Amino acid sequence: MPTPRLRFAPSPTGYLHVGGARTALFNWLYARRYGGQFLLRIEDTDKARSTDDSTRAIFEGLEWLGLDHDEDVVYQGANVERHQAHARQLLDAGKAYRCFCTQAELAVIRSDAAVRKDAFRYDRRCHRLGPDEVARRVAAGEPSAVRFFMPEGETAWKDLVHDTITFANKDIGEGDFIIMRSDNTPIYNMAVVSDDIAMGITVVMRGDDHISNTPKQILLYEALGATIPQFAHLPMIHGTDGKKLSKRHGATAVGDYQHLGILPGAMLNFLALLGWSPGNDIEVMTLAEMVERFSADGLLRKASVFDPKKLEWMNGQHLSLQSAEEIAPRLIPYLERAGFATADDLAARREWFHSLVDLLKVRARTLDEIVHQAEPYLVETITYDPEAVAKQWKDPAASAALLERTRAALATVEPWDPTPMEETMRAFAEGEGVSAGKIFQPMRVALTGMTVSPGIFDVLVALGRDRSLARLDAAVQSLRR
Fold first, then answer.
1. Domain CATH code at residue 152
2. Is the domain of 70 the same as that of 33?
3. Quick one: which of 472, 2, 428, 453 has its CA closest to 202?
């Protein structure tokens, strides 16, 4: 078997979307699993819609995901001369012919087919032109496209996802399909086959919306005397409503999820399960584990559902698996944008900051949630959540008095560690004649402004003695205003 060579070939007409990222991932996993090469080709022949911004977004998306490519990036638009040469090769071999039909003439053929209630198929009128007539028209500068001459029979391949797929050649498209436009630029199928031959691609893995293109491409490979690669057509990705994933389902660009605080490892893990199963009910995997387990046998035929809640759950799993040292570099830019801290400040308190990340990550599903939880520990003055105040400080005077006594009890704790804290506070609650929760909940609001946080003693340790006591003083003052 030849060394596997696979490619991801996006068109730079928009951002790297979820479906494209999934396709890139499966190609990358196959190449890495079987010791092959993963290549990147930018299909920029549509000059009107291709943009540098889109190309840059594709590169940035792949870089964020960690899907590195081998060899130099190929730009399809730079290879038009080779596409033209392959078309001439087909013309010279009699496997393609020039078509001088105008759009008006083709419209009449279509109209006649519609009247007969037949599917449109080109009637090969230009194939019947003699070589002298063709040469005369070309010499006169008459515009002509190039059509591939469709042979009789059928075209079949063993798909890595769908097993054997067969098309009767008479049912492929509209008969003799165009491979070069009248302006001498290639049609998609011609350009793709020419490029894949030049790049030595052995496996073409893409969405199953390309199945109808595959028989045309196989016929072109055969006509050019080239080795036909294996094909794998991946199922579509649907939204939770069962319809093809689109912007109406929310964010579909990979970059959007990066900015929403999703980890690249979680995104890759989530995407991998959209169309592939590692078996044994395994779900949470690192990228290295995905490479180790990947096999084309696990590729699924059925469309997959992109569920944002499942993605958040997956992200939470990856957050819990990663160390603070791994999470912190990704988290710092979010904290800086929120205005809670600077990178220099956090670097100066590295050990404390990492302990805070470890404390908060277990209750978070995204980096954004960690940022929200981290605010009370990073800012000087906190804001009390109105619902927390209404629930835990119903009687301001009584709450202020209780917090004042709580503060006095806490001030006696030595050292500032969870065990003596808990002993002191439970003894204090017993002396007050209330459950510990009646002390801890009002205190939690005073310390964090929220009703939900890590364990109260973890909060006290993270804030430190001085800030904890100062927060209780501030809460008392606020309640007595």
1. 3.90.800.10
2. yes
3. 2
Sign, Cα dihedral of 223, 225, 229, 230: positive
Amino acid found at 131? P
Residue 165 has a CB neighbour count (10 Å cut-off) of: 17
Q: How many CA atoms lie within 13 A of 259 on its CB side?
A: 8
- C-alpha distances in angstroms, 462 versus 145, 244, 286, 294? 72, 46, 30, 42
Q: Please confirm whether the linkage preceding 415 is cis (ω < 30° from 0).
A: yes
- Domain count for the chain: 3
Catalytic residue ranges: 247
* Distance of alpha carbon 428 from alpha carbon 432, whole angstroms: 6
Identify the domain containing residue 120 by its residue range. 85-180
Task: Look at phi and psi of residue 153 and say left if phi exceeds 0, alpha if psi is from -120 to 50, else beta.
Answer: left
Residue in the block written with tokens 């470890």 = 358
Single-letter code of the amino acid located at 158:
K
Q: Are 403 and 443 in contact (CB under 8 A)?
A: yes
Of 158, 170, 196, 177, nearest to 79 by C-alpha is: 196
Beta-sheet pairing, 145-148 with 178-180: antiparallel
Which residue is associated with the tokens 């007595």?
A: 480
Q: How many helices (H) and strands (E) does the chain have?
A: 21, 12
pLDDT means per 10 residues, the chain with 481 residues, are: 94 92 98 98 89 94 96 96 98 97 91 86 94 96 97 97 96 92 96 98 96 97 98 94 82 87 96 94 95 95 93 96 95 96 97 97 94 96 95 96 97 96 96 95 97 95 97 96 85
Structure tokens at 181: 């436009």
Judged by phi (left if over 0) then psi (alpha if -120 to 50, else beta), residue 433 lies in left
Q: How far is CA 218 from CA 10, 42, 80, 170, in A?
A: 20, 22, 20, 15
Asked whether residue 198 is assigned to any structural domain, the reply reads yes
User: CA-CA distances (angstroms) from residue 57 to 253, 256, 264?
Assistant: 10, 11, 15
User: Do 397 and 451 belong together in one domain?
Assistant: yes
